[in-house]
Amino acid sequence: MGVLIGIDHGGSTTTAVVVSSDGLLLGRASVSTERHTPHPGWVEHSPESFVDGSLAAASRALSSAGLQWSDVAAFGIANQGETSIAWDEATGRPVGPALSWQDKRTSNRCAELRDRGLSSTVERISGLSIDPYFAATKYSWLSKSSDEARASRVRGTLRVGGTDSFLIRCLTGGVHATDPSTVSRTALMDLDSATWSSELAGLFDVPRSALPEIRPTVGDFGEIAHEDVPVSRLPITASIVDTNASQFLHELWSPTVVKATLGTGAFIETSAGNSPVRPSNGLAPFIGWRIGDDLRYVLEGSVYDVGAAVDWAVDIGLAESAATTSDLAASVDDTAGVILVPAFSGLAAPHWDSEARATICGLSLKANKAHLARALLEGIGLAITEAILLLADTAGHDDPEVAVDGGPSRNKFLMQLLADLLGYPVRAVQEPDITGFGAACLAGLGKGIFTQADLANLRPDSITYSPMTNTAFREDKRRLWRDAVDWVRKEERFRD
């Protein structure tokens, strides 16, 4: 039958996994994706890095499995969601940088739109707030960011999309497509009909002709015809947002799960069924996927800085490495009264405050590096806890099953800390590349190699962490966290 390749466009790496027709992970490889920060709040990548990185990682993953491109049956993509790219269709060349989901350069534009009273229109149609996190203002900015972009827009050859759309275009030589999960993160989709909204495209000043065709998550995204892939007619049969790739598998394993995918940030989701919802508590409603006639919705809470916050701690010399951050934190029993709100890139759902900044509260002469390291990890854990509890309450899960995946899920200290803060067991998936695995599994569905029943039996190993704290401890930690977040949001003088 051949093997399957799953690509995961992460925040700092592009990873490829090779999965067999019986669901075994045979090989994997990762390639670093450089991030550039030319100005405060600006985060960008080279668009070509997603293409070059995908092909290089796939080739290396195949080599690690002792396989070749001729052994591949299908190709699946898990993309970065809100990360946005613009290019000229005639040349295929980018007309600007890839704007990361972390990028905040359109904050002022979002504020202008909110000041014009347009928030209710955007929320009514898309279910989302006006925020620089979503792709709409990124697309608009890119369409006018350079002479080449403006010329492409005038000619009608401008194209915009996520990392999936650009990769698909480059691999196939012309297909301009994406899936509903990606479109739902643009703030340009009619959430009820799962189609592009011409009204929102006009409101955000995004040319309707530049937007990709919406195709089912599992389906036909063209065939690869690229000089670095020495085979012909290799189909791309799945494309999905990265966090939804793992959510799809988790829902097969447990339909009521609240799942957190940890990496550069944390993206926490639970199923919203087959009908769109528009919660008023700050949670974001997205489409999870479309497979055939089955359109699934999810609710999401998010934390912008998880791995990024730990990287900051290493960069400033607080710890020698990400691993030693946990060792350092575990060397003390408490934070010495320190509370750290890790809002380095702002506060995401449910707060939606892109201008908030990371803050350390309660610092005294007693505090040392170990206390700060513990405060950092507690801050990450409390932010994730806030989102999980809100999702569980909104979805009506009185006793939620909590699952965590991504690289940090193998960090025993962080997982035990999360269970202690939640008061619920936490099931930590031990497969670090579950997102790429999900993309490969979805590609296998599209190729007819797997059924959903097959995938329900491919549950990876996990470790369950049970809470070891009492209710008073958890409530005190959560109260102090809420107070710190409220203070951060009110403290205007520290903002740009």
Structure description:
The structure is a single chain. The protein has 496 residues and is of the alpha+beta class. The chain is 36% helix and 22% strand. It has 16 helices and 23 strands. The strands form 7 sheets. A 7-stranded mixed β-sheet has the order 17-18-16-15-21-22-23. It has a 6-stranded mixed β-sheet with strand order 3-2-1-5-14-13, sandwiched between helices. Strands 4-7 form a two-stranded antiparallel sheet. It is globular and about 65 Å long.
CATH superfamily membership of the domain at 3-243 = ATPase, nucleotide binding domain
Q: Quick one: how many beta strands?
A: 23
Enumerate the strands of the largest sheet in spatial order, edge to edge or round the barrel: 17-18-16-15-21-22-23
| Helical residues, percent | 25-40%
Quaternary state reads single chain
Concise structural overview:
The chain is 36% helix and 22% strand. The protein has helices at 47-64, 107-115, 119-126, 135-143, 147-155, 163-172, 180-183, 198-204, 242-253, 307-315, 322-330, 369-395, 412-422, 434-447, 452-456, 471-490; strands at 3-9, 13-19, 25-32, 44-45, 72-79, 85-88, 98-99, 158-161, 177-178, 189-190, 195-196, 213-214, 223-224, 234-241, 258-262, 266-273, 284-291, 294-303, 339-341, 359-361, 402-405, 426-429, 462-465. Helix 9 (242-253) packs across helix 14 and helix 11 (322-330) crosses helix 12 (369-395).
Q: What attributes characterize this protein structure?
A:
16 helices; 22% strand; alpha+beta; single chain; 496 residues; 6-stranded mixed sheet; Nucleotidyltransferase, domain 5; 7-stranded mixed sheet
